[in-house]
Each structure stands twice: as C-alpha cells, then as structure tokens.
Amino acid sequence: MGLAAGFLGLQSGQAVAQAQTxxxxxxxxxxxxxxxxxxxxxxxxxxxxxxxGPQQDQSMPGYRQAKPPKPQxxxxxxxxxxxxxxxxxxxxxxxxxxxxxxxxxxxSNLGSTYIPLDSWIYPALMRLYSLGYLDRAFxxxxxxxxxxxxxxxxxxxxxxxxxxxxxxALEIYNAVMAELESDTHTTGYWxxxxxxxxxxxxxxxxxxxxxxxxxHLGQTIINDYGRxxxxxxxxxxxxxxxxxxxxxxxxxxxxxxxVPSAAGYSPALAATLAAxxxxxxxxxxxxxxxxxxxxxxxxxxxxxxxxxxxxxxISIGKxxxxxxxxxxxxxDWSNNAENIYSFxxxxxxxxxxxxxxxxxxxxxxxxxxxxxxxxxxxxxxxxHMERFxxxxxxxxxxxxxxxxIWGGEGHAPITLGTFWNSFTSFQNVSVAxxxxxxxxxARFSTFDFTLRLPYASKLLTLYTDSESHDDVTPVSAPRRxxxxxxxxxxxxxxxPKFDLRGEGVYTDVSVSNSNNGSFMYYETVQxxxxxxxxxxxxxxxGREAKGGQAWLTYHLSAQEMLxxxxxxxxxxxxxxxxxxxxxxxxxxGGGTTQNDFTFTVxxxxxxxxxxxxxxxxxxxxxxVYKTGGQNDVTTNIQITWYPKMTRSLRKW
Length: 652
Known about the structure:
- The chain is mainly beta and 652 residues long.
- The protein has 2 domains: 1-186, no CATH class; 194-651, Porin.
- It has helices spanning 104-109, 121-130, 146-154, 157-162, 167-179, 267-277, 356-360, 416-424, 431-434; strands at 2-4, 6-9, 20-22, 99-102, 191-208, 212-213, 218-219, 232-245, 248-259, 295-309, 312-318, 341-347, 363-371, 382-393, 396-406, 442-452, 460-469, 481-489, 498-506, 531-532, 535-536, 545-555, 561-571, 592-606, 609-622, 626-641, 645-651.
- The chain has an 18-stranded antiparallel beta barrel.
- Helix 2 (121-130) runs antiparallel to helix 5.
- It is globular.
C-alpha cells in the first residue's frame, strides 16, 4: 500500500489536511524513510499542476506560491486532491495525488517547537540544500521549527518531482517527512497535544586526561551543550518532550549527569592562567582548578515556552542557537556551551519587504537577551544579540549579527538605560567611559555568506563565517576579523552516497592587540568574555588560535551514516605561556596543539531506535599543563528511543 499525506498550502482562514491511501503495486521503501509515510511514493509525472510551482503570487510572506483550489461545496474543512494520472513514460505506475492544505493560518498562528541542534535532521537537510534543493532555507539561522521545515519541504516538492532520478534527495525528503508526519495533520482547530519525543542513555568512558578549557588550553569534546566530562566513566540519561496548544508551544529536554572526580589544574597553573586573563586568582568557571568533585545532578538542556504571532516565534527559557553556516563551529552563537535563559524573538518565516527585498532578498531576523553565568569579573553580566540574514537568490545568502556583553555586579547595573546604551552605541569610547556605568559593553559583530557555486550548484557549496571585535562589521575591517571558511562536496561523482566537507578557522589575527589572547572573545572589562558556565558559546577554536576540520561521510540512508573526521587546533605561544611556573623544571615553549581523529556510526536498529556511537583518539600538547605529548581515548555510545507517544488533550 502506498501512503501519501497532506501537504501545507494557503486558503482563507482555515487549515485542512486529508491523507489519502492509494491502492498501488507494492514498492520497495527508500532506505531511511523511517515509517510507511511517503516511503512507497513512486515519483512519476502527473497531469495536474503541482501546488507550489512557478505559478506564484504575493500570498506568502517572503516567498510566493500558488493560490490553492477552493474547498468542495459542503466540505469546508477538506479538499479532494487532483485525480492521479497515468505516467507519461508509459509505466502503469501512477503518481500519487496530493492533498493541498492551506498554510497561511499555520504560518501565522500555530505554535511549533524547535528541532534540537543535535538532531539527524540538520545534516540531512544541509545535504539536501547542497544537492540543489531547499532554496528557502536560511542555513545560518538554526534551529528551525518543525512547521518551518515542513514549509521548506513543501516548497521543494515540484523540483524533487521533476528530478525524481535524484534518489539521494528523494530519500532525505521522505525521511524528514516521515519524522514530521504528525505535524502534517494540523487542522484549523485549536488543538492541544503532548508528545514524549525521546528517551536516551549515553555512556562515555574516557581514558587519559582530556582537555575541557575552551577559554585557554582547548576542548576534547566540542559542541556538546557544555556537558561536563572527566577521565573515567561519564554517563548521561535524558528525555525530551514537547507540547502545543494553538499558538503556544512548550519544549523540555533534561538529563541526569554523572561525571567522575578529577585532579583539575594545579594552584600554580590556575594562577598562571588567571594572570593571563587579568582576573583575580579566585575560583572561576573559566579555569577548571582542582580538585574537581564527582558530579551527580539533573540539568535542563532546553526548556522554553513560546508563542507564534504573525510568523514570529516569541519565547522565554533555554533554547538552542546556532548562527552561522558552518558545521564545525559558529562565531556568533553555537551549542558549545550550556544554553542560557533568555527572551527571544525569531522571525521564523522569510519577510518580503516591497522594493527592498527585490534588491537584497527576503529577510529573517532574530533578537535575544539573557544573563550569562559563570562570570566573576564582573559577576553576572548580560548579553544581547541581533541578527539579519538575506536571501537574494536560490544559491546565495548572507547575514550580519551583533552580540554585546554588558553590565555586571560592581561595574554597571542591568537596567533599561544600560541596555539601551549598549544597543545603540556603535562608536569607540574612552577608557573613562569603559570603566563607568556608561560602558556600552564588549561588542562583537559577524558577517557570513553561503554560495552554491555556479555550474556546480548541486555539488559544491562555499561558505564563510567571520567575526570582529569593536568593529561595525568584519567587512569593514577584514584584517581584524577571525574567519571560518568551508567547502562542502555533497556527493562524489560515481559514488553519490559519499560526501566530503572541510573547514579552516583562525582567530590569531594580525593586529597588535590580538597578542596574549586579549582581542577575540575577550575584552578589557568583560575579561571572561564570550563564555557561559565556563565554555565559549561561540566557536570552540577560542581566543587566539588556528585550526581546521574535515569530515568524510558515507550515508547508509538519510538517517544513518559512517563517518571519519579530523580536527586540529593550535593556540598561539604569546597567549598560552610555557611551563615557567614549575620550580626546577626545564623551560618549555608555550602554546597548545590538538589533533583528534574520530570514527562515528549512526544506525537505526529499529525505525524508532537509534544507535549513535563514536570513538575518538586525541593527541595534545600543552607544556603549561603537562610536559610532553598526551593521549586520550573517548568512547561514546548513545541509544535513543523515539516513542513519539502523542496524547491529544483538547480540541475545539
């Protein structure tokens, strides 16, 4: 049996969906589809026009689409899809019809939770984008809500249909649609649903001494929500759940964490690094001074309540942020540190501004403000971030952001006045102003772009992320900007299941005030800078370093893969000193070096049971910490169950 489900469209004031079951010859499901949903679709031509194609109007903000047919008389909440037609190639197969569902109300009024950044959906959709699809995706503004992903996919159905021989694209499309199947049944009624999304168990033993000091010596495990880890057996047991009620949405993800005790940094090393930062030698989250006790506690990874109003997701709580086009890191914001509690406004659908958007393209924007934890100099500063991203063509997008850390106990109070001062100040200020309550804060700006290369738009994607300190934008001061640049080959010619990605990154910029780690992610007043709970919430590369990453991936299916990856990082010698603090020890040069090799397996043991396992070997040198080369081996095994247990609580 083939099953085609409802797709979202536009119709005055009501949203409807009718999934239609078709009698058709049995077909082999595409690998990774994850359920029967759309797994058996035969992508053949159809006589009736597609719902989202060249026929366009101004009805959808930012992007234009065809007007849907009117509902049948007497059935105001349903629409009968066009009758199926015979295949034009002479096959007796028929292309399944589509149920067209109005989406204006969904885009403006219905709540939807964000998809977590560590979901398999993001690498799948980023690959689909680099294969030449997903034209309306803003790849430097993640996470995406579940309904926004559906709208991206629905806008691509005609293109994927016309390129039906592109099995990799079709496989991704079907798998993501299967994952979001429950969201396609949204109706015009106000409904209240609660879903247990996942339960997971993660075991991570580490042999050898790992690094977990992103502000100085480096990290062994990156982009992992700032989870603590030490040598020995680490364990994380968690769950995630979501609920929606009309325009409101709630998402909760929490886990119990066990981390063994560790020796930590010696008092001499802690004092040395505190002197580098210019921070009094007191216990501080940015320096893991020992001894470190065993940790056993429950922690919320995400917990946010949101309301969707006129295509804006307005939320409060802890939620993921990744602002940048790269995979390895993001200068503006990433999940390298624990999420902060914040108030956030996110334009989740592209906005088309008359005249301006014809030149600059549709725009999405975002605003975030919240408190940073783990700071002692000054204590409890706040941060706000603003971002604008434009999409002038299907193959090119670019974005700007500005992040400001301001205030803190003993420096400047957190008030509307100090916030407004930091929000509106774009000029350099005197030292006296910096040390007063009128300090506009530590200001960082980013610029990024993504380009699907001409004549290779279905193979190669070039992207660059950059950040500068105390400049309006890195474009105006490229010599003062840190840069992460990458190139992604979405598939090998003749071997379409392989892809290759490489990224290079540096923050060791060639200006005098970059020395001693006192420029990128650091500031004269905010000396613990771009960190939350001790970890950098931007790019893991850190304050004055350079490095790179590479990934070679074989895709078993849209949800499954085998991957080899390599990571290198090297901090500057003028930033990290040598081991001069050790009495009687020979003087050894400064700086740090890391080399990581990782093998990853992601496999669906059952449609709702995922194995995510990786083995990492690391060799590092940090003479200020330990003399000679050091080795550590990390084994990670995570089993995740996706029960998708949904309960409809109310409907009217």
